[in-house]
Amino acid sequence: MPARRGSNRKPRRKVHRRPYATPEVYRILRPRIKALARTAAPYLACLALLLAVWGYSVALWDVAYGYGASEVSHAQC
After folding, report:
1. Between the CA atoms of 34, 36, 37 and 43, what dihedral angle is there, to the nearest 10 degrees?
2. How far apart are the C-alpha atoms of 44 and 64, rounded to whole Å?
3. Cα distance between residue 12 and residue 6, in whole Å
4. Furthest-apart CA atoms within the chain: distance in Å
5. Secondary structure letter of residue 22 according to DSSP
6. 76 vs 18, which has greater pLDDT?
7. pTM here?
């Protein structure tokens, strides 16, 4: 009878880390990401303010000239 060599289980494959996932890469990119965020923040804030003002003005225009009510009355005819 032959000697037992061990289990028939296949050994686990080693998981290779991707080069972009290393902490060194994040350490290098961190200042660039922060600079991009600092640069983009005012533009995004202005865009949000512009969209809010535009939406508010459209709502006031609809209330003042009654476009919302006229569209509903045309749809019911």
Report:
1. 160
2. 30
3. 15
4. 98
5. S
6. 18
7. 0.48
Cβ-based neighbour number of residue 44 at 10 Å? 10
> Do the Cβ atoms of 43 and 37 come closer than 8 Å?
no
Phi then psi dihedrals of residue 6, to 5 deg: 130, -165
The answer to whether 67 touches 61, Cβ cutoff 8 Å, is yes
End-to-end CA distance of the chain: 95
Is the pLDDT at 44 greater than 80, yes or no?
A: yes
Alpha-helical segments (H) within 1-77: 23-65, 67-76
Tokens of 27: 């350490």
Distance CA 39, CA 69 (A): 43
What pLDDT score was predicted for residue 38?
A: 95
